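Justification of resources, computational component.

The compute hours requested in this renewal are based largely on the per-chain cost of generating structure records like the one below. Each record pairs the submitted sequence with a full structure-token output. That output is archived, and it is also reused by downstream analysis tasks.
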Amino acid sequence: MSATTKTSTKAKPSWFTSKTAEIVLPIAVGIGVIGLWYFVSYVVLSPRRRFVLPPPHQVLAEGFLDTHNLVAELGGLWTTTKVAIAGLIIAMILGFLTAILMSQAKWVEASLYPYAVVLQTIPILALVPLIAFALGYSFWSRVVVCVLIAIFPIITNTFFGLQSAEPAMHDLFTLHRADRYTRLVKLQIPASLPAVFTGLRTSAGLSVIGAVVGDFFFRQGDPGIGLLIDTYRNSLQGERLYAAILLSSLLGLVVFWLFGALGKAVTGSWYRPTSH
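The structure output for this chain reads:
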């Protein structure tokens, strides 16, 4: 005698779809964060300590609606953006080349991968003074900091992606006597693209962090958003401090979103992640 089991799933409301959730849930969380911000500003903090966390409307008025302040912050943001973009481009070139070389020979992987791990494990703040001694306090010193912070995810994700092609496809290329270059260009690189864009999204955000960190230490030249953050902190300008922090966070979100959108545009028509 056989028994059949029926499973029933609770139907979601018709208005609740994945697209709706992507819009409604972040807005709800944002409202909650702003409410908590006001609570801390007006209830937890005393009036004389409110500069530690000024309420959102004061941050908006001082940091974004005041034209003079906004121009200074946007100028610093643009300087940081240029450093982050330059560092990310160099990290992409070096990371892709390193990963491709590692994927082509085991001895290259054994030779290079430990040093890539070392770059990831050394505290970047310990290297900043050495970079300053070697390169001075120029634009390119900040770029080097971005490269050191952003390169590891590109190497590891690209290397993993190049190795992710199906064994059956490798067998097919072997059957057709494809050379190493053909296998790389027509099989390994296309198979690696989803992992590559995952690494790029991570490295894009890290490059912004590297640019801001560089601003804190390389204080010469055009001031970036990191130097403005430090200046506002020292002068206890809380409203402008939080405005600069929000702008730097927005820059990180924008570059992360751009590479996510680019990844979907490149791989979305054919790549479907395996569902478990």
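The chain is about 80% helix and 0% strand. Residues 67-104 form the longest helix (38 residues).
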